[in-house]
Amino acid sequence: MTSLPHPILILLSPLLAGLLIPILAPRLGEKISKIGIIAQVISFFLSLILLYDVTVNPPISIAPLNAQDFLGFGLYIDRLSAVMMLLVTGVSTLIHVFSRNYLHQDTGYTRFFTLLSLITFALLYLVASPNLLMLLVFWQLISWLLYLLLIHNHVHQPTIKAGFKTLIILRIGDICFLGGVILAYQLYGTLEFPHIFERAAESTAVISLLPGIEMKGVTAVALLIFVGAMSKSAQFPMHVWLPDTMYGPTPVSALMHAGIVNAGGFLLNRLAPLYGLSPTTLNLIFFLGALTTILGASIMLVQNDAKKMLGYSTVAQMGYMIMECGLGAFALAIFHFIAHGLFKASFFLGAGSVIHSTRIEPKAPTAPKISQVLSEPKPKAPFSRLIWLTGFITTLILPLFILFMAHDVFHIPLNDEAHGAVIFLFFGWVTSSQAIISLYRMNAVSSWKVVSAMIGTLTLIVFTYLFAGELFTLFLYPVPGEAAFYFETAALPAVIFDFFVVLTALMIISVWVFLYAKARGQHILMPAWIEDLKIKYYVRLMNRLYIDLFYQRCAQRITGLAQKIDKRYLAWLP
Amino acid sequence: METTINITQTLILVPIFGAILGLFFRKKPKALKGWFFAITSLILFAIFLNPESVAPTTKSLALLIALAAWLCILARYLESNTAFDLFEILILMGLGFGFLFSVKPLNHIFLASIFALLISMQWRIGGEASAPEKFWVIGLNGLAIILLGTASLFSAQNEAILLSLAYSMLLPLFPFHGAYAVFLKRFPGALPPFLSLFLPSLGLHGLLPQIQMLPPGIKHLLLVCAISGIIIGGLRSLVQIRVPDVLSQIALVFWSVLWWHFSRPEASTNTALLFLSAVALSLCGLFLMWHGLAARFGNLIINQFGGLSSAMPRFSVLFVLLCTAAMGLPLFGVFSGFIKMAFSSTSGFSWGLLFTLFAWVFASWRIPTLMQSLLFGKQNPQWIYDDLGLGETTAFSLLLAVLFILGVAPQTLMELQHFPELSAHLSATRMENNP
């Protein structure tokens, strides 16, 4: 319990801004953006103080003012909440500042800033919710506010269509989440976080919707809530909304990719003790995350629309984050999405100025015409053995290097049954391999600068993951043994885990072999059926595996059925 | 007791006499609206300040009906023709109070009068309704009158079944929702918004004493009808092309959720009242908004509208907020009402509950598409757009304020059962079941 007002002020500040902006807009015009910016700056600095406060003191709990009503507006702020509040207020401040000029003379200026302040408030309350019901309340509000922000340009039909698609998928997730909350209340009689976790651990309840098919109560609750997380974090098969939302204003894209899609990861972290009781759910989360990563990355590679590529890049990253949660590495997921969020926000906010510079720069290269590209002979790419060797060796010797550092320098036990340490190392290896392969693709010229960049990337990623693995986990889950317990619960059968690691390692090595051959102008002979498969899958991936089409067909079928019922079978009934 | 009778009698008589006196202003719509507004304000004030005389549930329902009448009169868009519907609203309100405040057999006489009045109203505007629609109205309302008149001849349990059937015409239950749907689709002016709230409120009042007496077999039947209502209403709402048709199907979906609640042993008066108030007010608001549009532009199909968000900003903001409430999103009453219903279950996760979640999917699908069709897209250059007036804006703002209070502080407003007590009750029940 605390008497400090700053946690409340952090939330009130954007809320007040959201309420004041439409009231003062007729008098202040575009100056109202300053109200939003000031509110976000106040919240950001107070969030910094709050983070320090909860780092040195126990979590802050503020009892609701309206305790007699079931929507009690209390607060619970622990380290996880404080970190999230800092991220939300930081990104929101940048987005507010950026939007001030970006939306200059826009007819929806007031509406945009009102909604931006309100969604910031909703995000802040979401991460500071004292119980599952309040979390659900703000979870749903975020879906609705995001939809309203996405349809900012509401005279543009594709924008409206994409906005509606987003809303309907998010609402399906929200409703499953609602089902999970109702079930949790029915099973445990409470929605307060600590009490749910306690009662879920004690409960042996099972539920049965069909005779003979039973499921542990905690698994059913965790699965239903996870569907909510899937929708917000764009997990397969609920990922289709994210790549289509690029019609929204750039600041909304930045907010969405840096903040809102991370809500799923936050939810899993907040309910980590509940998920820790359900190994089945964690294993499913891992597989869905892995599937989303693979599909997201594969579809991204073959898209010919830059915006869709960005969308699928986020889908893949979210899959990666969810996969980490599925392995019990909850803190790592938080670390991952903070890094990804900042990177993506800067990417989106910077994109406009790059385009602008290109437009005003007379020397900027223009895109060649297709006929020109076809007629001119393609220059042979210079092969750099130095670069290739650096990449190949670093990605292959990296595991050994990490093992050495982890075991002998950081003294992380590697022989645990839950693979906890191996997971951190594995993710570090995969991430750095991915980064180095990308660097190699972009800079296939012989240069010590590129070599330095590769080694720098390697070092940075390895140490970042080790930092995340050790310090950040300890920071977010300070109770001794808690993080290890999650790893143990999430542990996959050794055969599956080893298979997954070996498969990924083989994929990385194959990429290096492929790059080597390609750079030397050589062709790797493949059986005909593999070539056929490549073409088939290329087309399928380019069409996004027809998942969007499938949903469209489903919607048409439902509407067709409704037409039949309305006009043929029940035309006599008003 | 004497005081009680006087106040309730006054509440019955004032609207009826007010309507009769209103005949003096029948050629002056503005003056008529002012007179009726004064009458309904007086009634609202009287019910609000009279906490002791009637049961809390009855008082809440009376307050809800008076509030709906007040809002409908305030937000009534004045056209050049007479405001005939306002007379009907006052007379129906008077008869409705008669049903709420009197006891058997007088209450049944009041209710039968309401059914008869509705049949006569349907007869007068029969030209707009199709032959099957007329059949539904006359058939169902006639059946309800017969049931009300004959139910007392049977045993207590059979009487409860017959009366519940009669009340299912008021609080719509599939397949007896036809008359309600026709009223909402065909009646002119501010009658549909008023009736969308008025009839279910009377239905709830009549149903509450009967529901505990229904045998389990009938409750199973209620569950089947409720689930059918959710699915059929939800699916049919997707393909309607006129706003009242969409809203009447959405109404069926939400009222089916209430019937699902009644089909369960743990059905609670307070929870049902909260849900009914929130849903009824949301529907009343949506129908009122539609009345405003239809009065301005005509009874057009949905796709003929578009671009209202730029042309009518006040309308758009309030409509978006009302859609938020009607979709069952927090922080409005429909969400809180449903959550309270769902949490009161002691029977675990059931198919019934699963189907009620479909109601939310349908609402989240149809209401935003309706909103998009009306508000977004391009404006019609040939139309003259006229944004909401002061009366309409005030009415909708107050309506939203009430829905918000129902959402965040229903305990304060409606003296509902305390949430933790429910929690304790559930835990105790579970411990008994699993010693």
Task: Provide a quick synopsis of the model.
The complex is a heterodimer of chains A (574) and B (435). Chain A has helices spanning 6-28, 32-56, 79-102, 109-127, 132-150, 157-188, 193-202, 217-232, 250-258, 263-270, 272-275, 279-302, 306-326, 330-360, 370-375, 385-409, 420-442, 448-476, 482-490, 494-519, 528-542, 547-569, and strands spanning 60-62, 75-77, 206-210, 213-216.
What does this structure look like?
The complex is a heterodimer of chains A (574) and B (435). With 574 residues, chain A is an all-alpha fold. Chain A folds into three domains: 1-130; 134-207 and 215-354, no CATH class; 379-525. Chain A contains 22 helices and four strands. Chain A has helices at residues 6-28, 32-56, 79-102, 109-127, 132-150, 157-188, 193-202, 217-232, 250-258, 263-270, 272-275, 279-302, 306-326, 330-360, 370-375, 385-409, 420-442, 448-476, 482-490, 494-519, 528-542, 547-569; strands at residues 60-62, 75-77, 206-210, 213-216. In chain A, the strands form two sheets. Chain A has a two-stranded antiparallel ribbon. Chain A has a two-stranded antiparallel sheet with strand order 3-4. In chain A, β3 (206-210) and β4 (213-216) form a beta hairpin. With 435 residues, chain B is mostly helical. Chain B has a domain at 268-435. Helix content of chain B is 74%, strand content 0%. Chain B has helices spanning 2-22, 29-48, 56-74, 84-101, 106-124, 131-150, 156-167, 178-186, 191-211, 216-238, 243-262, 269-297, 308-311, 313-326, 333-343, 351-375, 390-408, 410-414, 419-433. The longest helix of chain B has 29 residues, at 269-297. Mean pLDDT of chain B is 87; it is low at 416-435. Chains A and B meet through α5, α6 and α22 of A and α6, α8, α10, α15 and α16 of B.
